[in-house]
Amino acid sequence: MKTSAKALIAAGVLSLAAALTAGAALIPGEPPPPAAAVPAQAADIPVSAASHADAIRSLNLRLRRLPADHQAWAQLGSAYVQQARLTADPSFYPKAEQALARSAVLAPGNFAALTGQAALAAGRHDFTEAVRLARLSERANPYGQGAQAVLADAYTQLGRYGEATRAINRMLELHPGVAAYTRASYDAELRGDRRTARRMLEYALDGAFSLADIAYCRHYLGELALHSGDLRGATEQYRLALRAAPDYTPALAGTARAAALAGRPAEAADVYATVVERLPLPQYVIEYAEVLVAAGRDPAEQWALLRAQRDLMRETGVRDDLTWAEFEADHGSPARAVAHAEAEYARNPNVVAADALAWALYRDGRAEEALPRAREATATGWRNALFHHHRAEIERALGLDGASRRSAARARDADPAFSPALPALARFS
Question: Considering the domain boundaries, does residue 239 fall inside one?
Answer without folding.
Answer: yes
